Amino acid sequence: MKAIAITRPGGPEVLELAERPDPVAGPGECLIRVAASGINRPDVLQRKGAYPPPPGASDLPGLEVAGEIVAGDSEALAAHGFKLGDKVCALVNGGGYAELCTAPIGQCLPVPKGWTLAQAATLPETCFTVWANVFDRAALQPGETLLIHGGSSGIGVTAIQIAKALGARVLVTVGSADKAQACLALGADVVINYREQDFVVEAKAATGGRGVDVILDMVAGDYIGRGVQALAEDGRLALIAVQGGVKSEIDAGLVLRRRLTITGSTLRPRSAAFKAGLARSLRDKVWPLIEAGRIKPVIDRELPAAQAAEAHTRMESNQHIGKIVLTWSRSEP
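Structure (tokenized):
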């Protein structure tokens, strides 16, 4: 099969089209003929040598794919309601930048009705991450207020739409007017340009001085300490990345007086059983919203797989709105 390999740690130019042996599905797995692969920040970190794959995972980058099931554990497929030929999207531990990819069957979800395979490839990493952190760990409830940092990112556009569809009020931070407009079009109630405004001040103003109930933070650094200031009583801050650094000064007195919770998680190292549980929640709670048209795909760029370096360059420019997707063309075996 053709695949995109990381030839050495470095910039986007180290991504090269390569030939690799076709993978073989093991117990509890299926083999997917990949039509599209989603691009995510962890892929960039892996390319730089800062985020190695977990033991047993492919060294190829790529954490989400969409395509057709062409082989697999027949009993496990049947138990999850799948069969050969089904179109699915899947969260994988690695190996997604390839024409063929194995996936735990419990981490597969059906391609939503009306969605293309390229659109479906934008769903797994973002939906699993948002559900695990915003709704499981931070327990966002209908009527509460969510502040999303990086509202126009792949995670951000997903979080806006799911939170709005489930009855929350949504504030987002962005860095430009076009990103602000995109977030408003997706349903965000308040947009804060962090280059011109203080998100703590604006979050307080938007909530009548109360503060927000939940913050989804992919920045970290001093945003954590500032986020503590922006939270309401019993507020929860869910940390999913550290793009702004790993250290912050926090007012512990506010944490005590307001009964605040600061939590964080990374998805890739979690067990297949944990991820399968998330998939069940998504299929039950989020997939009906997608198929009802209340959550829409947001694709910034759809590029041929051979242009993976260009896709990574686009992601690192921070100019993208929504997801970047690689597409594959493979003849029938």
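The radius of gyration is 20 Å. The first helix runs from residue 41 to 47.
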